[in-house]
Amino acid sequence: MMMARKQDVRIPTYNISVVGLSGTEKEKGQCGIGKSCLCNRFVRPSADEFHLDHTSVLSTSDFGGRVVNNDHFLYWGEVSRSLEDCVECKMHVVEQTEFIDDQTFQPHRSTTLQPYIKRAAATKLASAEKLMYFCTDQLGLEQDFEQKQMPDGKLLIDGFLLGIDVSRGMNRNFDDQLKFISNLYNQLAKTKKPIVVVLTKCDEGVERYIRDAHTFALSKKNLQVVETSARSNVNVDLAFSTLVQLIDKSRGKTKIIPYFEALKQQSQQIATAKDKYEWLVSRIVKNHNENWLSVSRKMQASPEYQDYVYLEGTQKAKKLFLQHIHRLKHEHIERRRKLYLAALPLAFEALIPNLDEIDHLSCIKAKKLLETKPEFLKWFVVLEETPWDATSHIDNMENERIPFDLMDTVPAEQLYEAHLEKLRNERKRAEMRRAFKENLETSPFITPGKPWEEARSFIMNEDFYQWLEESVYMDIYGKHQKQIIDKAKEEFQELLLEYSELFYELELDAKPSKEKMGVIQDVLGEEQRFKALQKLQAERDALILKHIHFVYHPTKETCPSCPACVDAKIEHLVSSRFIRPSDRNQKNSLSDPNIDRINLVILGKDGLARELANEIRALCTNDDKYVIDGKMYELSLRPIEGNVRLPVNSFQTPTFQPHGCLCLYNSKESLSYVVESIEKSRESTLGRRDNHLAHLPLTLILVNKRGDTSGETLHSLIQQGQQIASKLQCVFLDPASAGIGYGRNINEKQISQVLKGLLDSKRNLNLVSSTASIKDLADVDLRIVMCLMCGDPFNADDILFPVLQSQTCKSSHCGSNNSVLLELPIGLHKKRIELSILSYHSSFSIRKSRLVHGYIVFYSAKRKASLAMLRAFLCEVQDIIPIQLVALTDGAIDVLDNDLSREQLTEGEEIAQEIDGRFTSIPCSQPQHKLEIFHPFFKDVVDKKNIIEATHMYDNAAEACSTTEEVFNSPRAGSPLCNSNLQDSEEDIETPSYSMFREDTPLPSLSKDHSKLSMELEGNDGLSFIMSNFESKLNNKVPPPVKPKPPVHFEITKGDLSYLDQGHRDGQRKSVSSSTWLPPDGFDPSDYAEPMDAVVKPRNEEENIYSVPHDSTQGKIITIRNINKAQSNGSGNGSDSEMDTSSLERGRKVSIVSKPVLYRTRCSRLGRFASYRTSFSVGSDDELGPIRKKEEDQASQGYKGDNAVIPYETDEDPRRRNILRSLRRNTKKPKPKPRPSIAKAAWESNYFGVPLTTVVTPEKPIPVFIERCIEYIEATGLSTEGIYRVSGNKSEMESLQRQFDQDHNLDLAEKDFTVNTVAGAMKSFFSELPDPLVPYNMQIDLVEAHKINDREQKLHALKEVLKKFPKENHEVFKYVISHLNKVSHNNKVNLMTSENLSICFWPTLMRPDFSTMDALTATRTYQTIIELFIQQCPFFFHNRPISEPPGATPSSPSALASTVPFLTSTPVTSQPSPPQSPPPTPQSPMQPLLPSQLQAEHTL
Fold this sequence. Notes:
Blueprint: H1 2-8, E1 13-20, H2 25-28, H3 35-43, E2 57-58, H4 60-64, E3 73-82, E4 88-96, E5 100-101, H5 116-120, E6 124-126, E7 154-156, E8 159-165, H6 174-189, E9 195-200, H7 207-219, E10 224-227, H8 236-247, H9 259-284, H10 292-299, H11 303-312, H12 314-351, H13 355-358, H14 363-371, H15 376-379, E11 380-381, E12 402-403, H16 410-442, H17 452-459, H18 462-467, H19 470-498, H20 500-505, H21 514-524, H22 528-531, H23 537-552, H24 566-577, H25 582-591, E13 597-603, H26 608-618, E14 625-628, E15 631-640, E16 660-665, H27 668-684, E17 698-702, H28 714-728, E18 731-733, H29 735-738, H30 748-768, E19 782-788, H31 796-804, E20 810-811, E21 819-826, E22 829-839, H32 840-843, E23 854-860, H33 864-875, E24 883-889, H34 899-914, E25 918-923, H35 935-961, H36 1008-1016, H37 1021-1028, H38 1030-1034, H39 1054-1073, E26 1104-1111, E27 1116-1121, H40 1142-1145, E28 1149-1154, H41 1185-1198, H42 1214-1222, H43 1264-1276, H44 1290-1302, H45 1308-1311, H46 1315-1327, H47 1336-1346, H48 1351-1363, H49 1367-1384, H50 1387-1390, H51 1394-1406, H52 1413-1417, ...
Parallel strand pairs: 1-4, 1-8, 2-5, 8-9, 9-10, 11-12, 13-15, 13-16, 16-17, 17-18, 19-22, 19-23, 23-24, 24-25, 27-28
Antiparallel strand pairs: 3-4, 6-7, 14-15, 20-21, 21-22, 26-27
């Protein structure tokens, strides 16, 4: 039943008739009132189905068609709507109108001939087969439209919509319309059907008409008015739904919305739909070439598209699409335009970059100019059709060239003008930059290193700021500074070379003393090139140190002209001149056993040598080849374990020439065996000229001991090994330091490093020792050295061309790349000449060690440094060696217009005249000289050949007997030498703290043969001198620290003093400076060899110096006598040893020749800085001065001639003692006169040497420098052995202070200072304070408190005194003592106990006046006070309880004496005198100590 009821429910259907003014044009005007549009919009609301034009003028045929069907009404069809109450209903819409005949313009005749008012009020309509109406186009074409008939052919009208047109209709009077509506309404009212007044065309409505229409409606009861607009689709549905509500009373009352409010809602709806549609279009359409047909198909199913088309129609949707396409095309064109415009300036820069070419051209003329450029088509394209943006060129993406017609546009003209302006501005900026550079170059205020902030005010003006940013000027200024700094450095380097004589006279070494650095600064200080680097002192000092390194260690790498060093050029020229085929090279290399071969001696007893040899062989290939740096070497091992005097155990055999020796030990006995074997081996070759074993590189290795049964500790073995290494001057490796263990854990890397070192030594030995002795002259008659100056303005190829291209020029047999052999006719015979072509700095190394018959020295006449180096070189050449000076000029001498060149030529000639040398000049413009110009010089060499060789042979004999260094190992005999056995100055490491031989470490006894020989020769004064220096003779570099022999006293006349002093200085300079002796546990000043032992007794009357064979075929000898006794050459060449020549002179004719001197003594122009040679004490560093003075004091006070009792000699071998006694002289040694210091403060410091209060603040009570030093030491140096006892290098300490003075933020870790340097600099800070850190008035109270016997009371009394310290002093003292306390806690590693630290620090912190005896005798009291502060630091400064004493404190002189060895290792530093005299120091309860011990304490 329920289902049946639901199915019976029918959708209500309403028939609505739309009526209004109709009729002819006269009645209704030119247009209708909008009834058709209202029906159209309601029945078919879609915008595409809405038609504005609905004509009522029809033809007879159309009127009779099935749509009109001869009726004056139209059936619009059926519409389903859901009303406001969501109830669906159906409505049939009928429009009552009046059709006009298009012929008669009168109403068509229909079946009903009633007037419109009566016909419109009809409630029953009938028309058979009447079709639904769509639009006017349907008439006559009914078959093209949907054909739907009016239901049942009849309709019953349920209500009326009465339309009133409120627009301003043409030819229509609104009042007439209102009158017509009033009549019509009256007729409709009669039907009793609901009526709703509809105001049409409200979008064009007239306010008065609307108001009048509302007035009309108000005059009628219950008449509702709806304001509509069919065109805008506003309130159309509302009008019909209002009528339906009136028809069906059961429906809710519809709310009538005013037109403008409804229009607003409709507009918002349309706008929303439009936005969504545009978004859809923008998402789908990306290309401006898209078409509507394809895009609309894509959008067909999109709700955004459907909604918008429904509201606005397809045409509007298409219009929006076309607008989007147009926008895309426009954007595309603009992008292309921007690209073209962006490329246009680049085209201008490429085609017309020259301002002079276009400066006055307009854009049109410039356009014509562009077409003439060769690269025009690379940048532009000329189109047939224009403008370019209207052609297909816009879609030609591959062609990026600029359309040439773009040049006709305004933006292109603007860009052209901008290009012009840019070029003009660039020209102006370039002018400004040029003017600024000129200003920099001409301004006297711009000096190297001047900061921009200081220079800106001098060189900047308003124009500069107007055209360029300051950063640009800063960049220009920075580049200019770099140029002038580089130029100033080059000029300063040239200045250093011009003062070469000074540097060689000062005898500098790797670590020059502060005194000598002061001399250099004094001499150079007035030079403008020195002052030019005033603001770059650190870099200037670095250049000086670098130059010193070059002087001390001259190599191709350290040469200032590197990589254009003359040596490198010569090696290349010689090697390329004598290049051989590869097979010949191979043959030669196979025939030479020394090429790619390492001969290694392994020395060690008890099987040590054999076992290590086996381990090394295990690392080799099957054929005993060893790979080093990727190169294969043949390794030949010779293990030796027996007596080296036996041939079977000899280091050297006819087929085995050793290149190095590994010395192994694992016990005291094996170490003694090593020492004895080395001394025996050296002794066996001592008298030979080819003393290869004297220079044999040694490496001492402590190997793992297997089964330690002797009780020896590793520490004692290491200590003894260090002592022996110090004596032998060799490398020492222990398991901890080198990582080399013995046995299976041998380190291949370390063995490779040892072999690399041997290879380097081998090469250097070959270089230095390649010169044959006199017996080798069978192959070479003369040896000539040609010296060239590095950096001279000439081409070495041109200078050497005559030599290398000579037909007689051959390769040297010595295998050197800088030597050639010449065979030239000299006199009546041909002579074979070995010509070595070297730089000056390489020539220094052979000046004394090598047999040279003559020197050819070149110099540039236009370069001062060239002649200065020549002078420095000639200073130390013996005056018997012929010299050929060669000046290189720019042209012929008679056309020289350079004053410097003329002056240099004149000086060269004068030097040649004064030294009896040869002089010639060669124009660089015509360098193709001939060897004949040197023939007179060669003849001089031949004439002096015999005397030169005789002198050289005697000098070598003197070397073997002299206590001075052997010439081979001297860095230079009178000048520095690149010694292969010495480390480079840049790589010098601080020598380990070796201790000398103690009483329990006896020296290896002398051999019996030696002892016997010494006894036999004891009466011979000359040869006994040779034997007395046997120990020094065995050492290559430094006199060994042997058990001391009694000091020798001389009776020296005043006239002889300079000779002795200078000869002694030259002999001992390098020996003292090459090592730093720092004994850790035992020291006796007498352990050092007495310096004057190196000086031979001078003669008081003329006597023979030496006699050598002159010409054996003629039976002559040459006896050279010391005629110029008072002269001193300072070279150490001549020896005054008293050789008995009677046996040589017997039966032979004797020629008398004067002893050779140096050219410096014969030429006034040489040695202008010679005075500085006698201005310094022995040793390169002023740290050694106090030791020497101490020794002199001991010599003058402690011993009285030969009969003096030497307690430490009692245990020696009697025969050895006899030898030593035979050396003593009954000569009184003069006390040296005090020498004024020539050192000068290098810089004025605002931080060091100022009162403590000026470098601290309440916020920072600790000086920044002290804080930085202590932080660095505690971070890196607490484990350093001998910290604060081992002194740092003074130059490095000064450099550290200087750098900190310039930059308080200095990072010590980055600068890579050694711990000892930082520690020494920290102590120096306190030494330089005007007042000591412990004030003098506090020292009195401290001493009084120390006198208290009760320990606890003493400590409390000292603590009370501490509280009286000035606040600044107390804070710094607390900081330092706390640090020393921390250092002492690491004493097991650093060996610095609180006692040792107090010994090192008390003179620095308290600075007593050692000129008073009270201070000297109270030193122990001061030291103990500081020791207590360090020990009890927690009690004194941190309120901790008193700690127990660590052990017995030395309280006797003997105990104190045991501590002295620690003191002597620290050099004396000049302490500034305190501003006030120190208080009288109370007498110490201790007995006065030896002066040497007191001085040793003062050393710290």
